[in-house]
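Re-running COMM domain-containing protein to confirm reproducibility after the cluster update. Everything else is unchanged from the original entry.
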Amino acid sequence: MASELYLHTCLLRRQLEEELRKSGLRSALPAAAAEVWAEFAIATQGQLLAASSPLESLIDVEWTFGVTASSSELEAVGSTYVQLRLTLSGDNGRARFAHIELSLPKFYELLHQLESAKAQLEVL
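Result of re-run:
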């Protein structure tokens, strides 16, 4: 995670320096401004990551698979979707529900991201 943060910050630094040069600034000013920005960004992002905490916990997931049988749009007929019902626990301990509907490709993309997150957490 720290290496990703470093690479992202370096990329932003190069982008900022390039934009400052394109805007007409010459000499060492674009490089110096980008350097200060990079140092500030690393410190700020680190503090934000340290201060962040999950506000809600995932308790349960229910899912339903469906196929569109009728629609005013001909292209939508026969398309597949997944409906998710997430049970979340907030700060006060009360459960609340969040409903999400995804196309099948978006569902598989979400599933892949969740599996990647799980694998990264298991490494920690």
